[in-house]
Amino acid sequence: MLRPLTRLTVSLRLARAPTHAHHGFPAAAAAPFTTTTAAPLKQMPPRPKPPPESDLEESFLKGSGPGGQKINKTSSAVQIKHIPTGIVIKSQATRSRSENRKIARSLLALRLDELANGDQSRTAIVGGAKKKRSDSAAKKSRRKYKKLAEEAAEATGKETTLKQAEEVDVEEGKAAEQEAAERVMQSETGNNTNAQK
Amino acid sequence: MPRLPPSLFWRARREISPMATYLLKACRDLESTANELRWIREHVRATPSPVFPGLRTWNLCERRGKGVPLQYVLGTQPFGNLDIKCRPGVLIPRPETEAYTLHLASLLSQEQQSSPAPLSILDLCTGTGCIPLLLLSSLLTPPAAPPKITIHALDISPLAISLATHNHAHNTALNLLPPPTPQTPHTLTFTRANIFHPLPAPPHHQQPGGTIDLLTANPPYISPAAFATDTSRAVRNHEPRLALVPDTSTSTLTDYAAAYNCLPQDIFYARLLECAAELRPRRVFLEVGDMAQAVRVVGMVLRDGGAGLGGYYATVEIWRDEPEVERVEMRRIAGREVGVRGEGKGRGVYLFQGDV
Ligand SMILES: C[S@@+](CC[C@H](N)C(=O)[O-])C[C@H]1O[C@@H](n2cnc3c(N)ncnc32)[C@H](O)[C@@H]1O
User: Fold this and answer.
1) Keywords on this record (chain B) (predicted)?
2) Which residue has the higher pLDDT, A194 or B241?
3) Which H or E run includes B340?
4) pLDDT of res. B306
5) Is residue B293 less than 8 Å (CB to CB) from chain A?
6) ipTM of this complex > 0.95?
7) CATH number belonging to the domain at A53-120, selected among 3.40.50.10490, 2.60.40.10, 3.30.160.20, 3.90.950.10
8) Which pTM was predicted?
9) How many other C-beta atoms are found inside a 10 Å radius of the C-beta of residue A187?
10) Distance, in angstroms, between B288 CA and closest chain A CA?
């Protein structure tokens, strides 16, 4: 059961790996990017289904400009509002408008699941596993970037200081976490394709 | 454009990354700067190269910071489920084009579900080939794949034709477009042609006298004056003028403007409606720049210059940016009630032989 909410804005940004994997046509050879399909998470609760389209109000966030040929925007942010609860989800995770629409719906499904199931929601359970993985990913990436920065400094003769390497490291740590979230989403969007096959 | 305050550059440096200071010059706010940096990094990660990733990222950020469109820097733009390659010299596909292309595909799919039949489509001014490629991919998605699809696309620019051909192969290799099979025979051909000359004879696989089910075109539709004042700098400085502004230095085009008594930015529509009158496609969709242009094009369809098109097409509509939104207002244009469909800015004129 859902508690009615006044208005709650959830804005999540997720890293994007190439999205080609999940719309593949079954007939031909496998896409070169199938590696983005994450190994299945063990004993995770099933993916919650997005609410029906009739419960959603969608808007595409764009500037006030003329649009079309006159401008060239790089992002296709999508915002959906779940009318029964008032929850608003915005996604600008990827450069793809189609992908952002799907991601916004998946995020909404997770959010509604959290509200309904609390500790037992998919996000709560997956969140525990995700933290463990990203902690170790961050450690690995710190070592890797220090080494790469040193090599680059030698190779190019450019001044690449360890401080710069550390800045990259912090960024990459964040990205690793975001990517983990993305893998969750991808394994979920993968379900759609499976249904098609 | 107003100068950005130095404090914003400091924040970009501190809150995002030193590389973000380059991007900020082109992106102009922290949110899109962070997004674009993330997409550049993902691109570097996803495309192997012997060059150190940090240096590649740096170079890409620098190019983007100089105002080059991100799609030219990364070489791609997602379009529906497709990955469209972009190269300088060919217009980058826009999200508005993606929205109506998907809507057209869903109308055709609905029709296929009730009465499956072979489909024939003609796209003029095809550029990257984004419109016919997305139509093909969407139409081939179950459950309503037509028994046969034949698509023919034309552009005057050799750069566009070679890029469109490459995009066809690229998306087939990525498995986003299926190769033709005996169960779903489909062909998509890209041919170099000036649409102001007689259109090339349909390729051998298209039966003579066969009807065209859909004619699409996103022609150059910006006036020279609006090009100078209304286009964004990335568009003006980096995208091909040939794709955006009808070239009024040639007599072919000025003759049309004179014969049809239309504005320079509307010249292509005069010719496109002539093609429609000749080919009588069952559906026509022409992209336009704004509501005023949409109204002028509807006027051209309905008046005598439209060669009786008004009588031929039972449905004449204007589509806004989001035509899938179920909202239609009626508007009286040239003595006829015309539906204005969807939400957003006026984006195109839709003609259909049948009733909606
Ligand atoms: C606005 S772009 C559209 C590209 C693509 N259809 C899209 O939606 O992204 C217009 C295209 O028309 C082409 N073009 C310009 N003049 C033409 C002509 N006389 N005959 C055929 N194509 C022409 C340009 O080369 C350009 O690719």
Assistant:
1) Methyltransferase, S-adenosyl-L-methionine, Transferase
2) B241
3) strand B336-341
4) 54
5) no
6) no
7) 3.30.160.20
8) 0.81
9) 18
10) 8
